[in-house]
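From: lab user (bench 3)
To: helpdesk
Subject: output format question, protein + zinc ion

Hello, I'm new to running complex predictions and I'm not sure whether the block I got back is the full result or only part of it. Here's what I submitted:
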Amino acid sequence: MNILIRNARVIDTRAGKVNEPQDVLIVNGHIADADHGTTPDIDREIDLGGKYLMPGLCDAHVHVCAATANLPDLVRWSPMYVAARASEIMSEILMRGFTTVRDCAGADFGLVRSVEEGYLVGPRILFAGKAISQTGGHGDMRSPGENWDDCTCCAGLGRIADGVAEVRKACRDELRKGAHFIKVMAAGGVSSPTDHISSTQFALDEMTAAAEEAAAQNTYVAAHAYTARGANRALECGIRSIEHGNLIDDSTFDLLLAKNAFLVPTMSTHEVLAEQGVENGMPKDMCDKVFEVAEAGHRTHAAAHARGVNMVFGTDLLGPMHQHQLREFKIRSAFQTPAELIRSATIKAAELFQMEGEIGEIIDGARADLIAYDRNPLEDISVLQAPEQHLKLIMKDGRIYKDAL
Ligand code: ZN
Ligand code: ZN
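Helpdesk reply: Thanks, we reran it on our side. This is the complete output you should expect:
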């Protein structure tokens, strides 16, 4: 199917500016050069009438299977039921304009295949499979009184591995199942019953082993960590992205810059959990941990941005709180301009995902992941936050999912 989009004010995500109205040609799901070569037969023409066309948004930290904020409970759900609940979360993510997301634990090859084959509607999903956690780590959902053995077939988001051999095996197993990258729990977290935010997790040789296994298969490791201590250890072991990072400091910024690594703040989830975590099913003692990190995130991420750290858009929302996904733009607008925010959700994400040239910008050969707004988000980022009102077209791989032109 070949589509010609006419009169599009294309947003150049790299330059952070809008081009004069132009035509954009889509051939077999990819953007083709509209000005050169012979134009193929056009199956459909869409006139944007000067509306703003940009690449689809990316969210580098989601959990489409986290249909409840009570993650220990999720382990007891039927995986099939989780998939049904995930389908709603995924279609809503796409309808907000996100055409690629990185699932940082939970999604599997079956769910991704269902989207690719059109059985479910959703964004392109890059998945980690199960997040790898040490015993008693952020991925261990057992309460102190529970002693069931870890199982990798249930609907939880994590799996447990201790020691280099088990970590290597867990990484290889997730990659065998098609994981696009590896996720490790490198330090304490909020939504786990027995660990503390301040703890570090995994020994250095365990994390180094994970980085080696990922690199062996041409991919990378993302690490959950809030503190400088936790994040720095992970970065020293060769981890590519630090997830959350609310309590990192200058020493972490130095390492992020030196290693050309990425920071994926998830500020909306902390803000929303602090406001309404308990009513959305998160156990109270877990929710109390949120306050430790929410406030600090504002200062830390503004400072990281000022230092020029690679910062990518991420949200990490759970359960019904997914509806606040676009709030992340507003929160970060305290320290990032609209052009910087858009970059973090397009080309910066593409870089982290190892998908440069494929997504994140409207260039010859890129995938036709396109969204169109009736107002210019570079002038007012809140345009992105009201998709019902302003988002007029959603296309992924050349297929149209919303046409409100
Ligand atoms: Zn996390
Ligand atoms: Zn997460």
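A quick orientation on your result: The mean pLDDT is 94. Let us know if anything else is unclear.
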